[in-house]
Amino acid sequence: MAPDADASALTGLIQSIWHGLSARANLGADREDLLATARLGHALICGPTVP
Q1: pTM (whole model) above 0.90
Q2: What digits encode the pLDDT tens for the residues 10-34?
Q3: Residue 45 — very low, low, confident or very high, per pLDDT cuts 50/70/90?
Q4: What is the largest CA-CA distance in the chain?
Q5: Cβ atoms of 20 and 33 closer than 8 Å
Q6: Which residues contact 18 (CB under 8 A, 6 or more apart)?
């Protein structure tokens, strides 16, 4: 993540992902689908991880 990342915008993005996951779970999305979305959000925010 860039050192000059806007903390407020980042918080809004994470809250949007979190609320979206919650709404999709309430609508019946399965665990694997939700995990795939969470992993994509993590990758977009933090960049690829190194094993």
Answers
A1: no
A2: 999 999 999 999 999 999 999 999 9
A3: confident
A4: 38
A5: no
A6: none
Q: For residues 34 and 11, what is the distance between their CA atoms, to the nearest angstrom?
A: 20
Contacts of 1 (CB under 8 A, 6+ apart): 10, 45, 46, 47
The amino acid present at 46, given as its one-letter code, is C
3-state percent breakdown (helix, strand, coil) of the chain, nearest 5: 70, 0, 30
- Between CA 27 and CA 42 the distance in angstroms is 22
- Whether 21 and 38 have beta carbons less than 8 Å apart is answered as yes
Residue 39 CA to residue 5 CA, distance in Å, equals 20
